[in-house]
Amino acid sequence: MPSHVEKAPEMSENNAWRSVHGLLGADTAARVAFLGVPLGRESITRGRCDLAPATLRAALKRMSVYDLETGTDLSNLAVFDAGEVGVAALTPAEAFAPIRDAARTQTQTRALTILAGGNNAITRPGVHALGLRKAGLITLDAHFDLRDTDGGLNNGNPIQALLEDGLEGAAVSQIGLAPFANTRKAHGKARRAGITVHTLADCATNGFVVLVESELERLSGFCEAIYVDFDIDVIDRAQMPAAPGARPGGIAVRDFLAAARVAGAHPKVKCVDLAEFDPGRDVGEIGALTAARWFAEVLAGFAARQ
Questions:
Q1: I need a labelling partner for 122 at 20 to 30 A (CA). Which of 68, 144, 180, 291 fits?
Q2: DSSP state, 238?
């Protein structure tokens, strides 16, 4: 180029800026996929978790692709937009196969698939998409989700259903379990199954993110793939009013976001989900912006793999 030819100036950021939403597209070669799973039926607490995927998509327009704290720039990261699974009107039992199959299509061809629920019943088909014989599961959740299945599937028993399906308890780690939010029966089930249990007190003593890192390392020792379920009710209720099951004394949102980046960075994490965000209960867009930031943090972690 002749030295006298000037480069075109960058577009003014008063007119446009690059957002995380702009990373979503139809690039079939993308190593990351985004799949909306608007499952809301059979929630123990009534709400509108089915609205969460669309709300998250809209909030991604508020997230810049640049993290000034670490210098991470997501501008060159493509995310395949796999759309939404049509399960809003279905029960968890009816939605199982459609969610499993849609997630499997992505996990078989991508390094990381991000599922946006929906209630926590999306976790069971998500884990099945990886295959029970090779998968490890970490749940970041205030609850065991070990309610009995004799009354049918709901958002309070995906872990119980997975154990009944054949997932080994030793391949399950549950972090952030809250006092006075679970039953003795569920605790006993977890112990008998061999599930690794870390309470909120454990998180306060050892560090939430440290425990997530430790369990990722433990599971990676014998699992081919790891699924991480991010139930936002693990966050302190004061910081997450849009989570029907959140309790006072939960995890700080900063730690929840840090765990998202840690999970995104781990090479054996093949699928993550965000569950139990209810836009109908949101206050001042706290939940929407937290969900969008969570998505950005997962991508920032994944970018570190490369």
A1: 180
A2: G
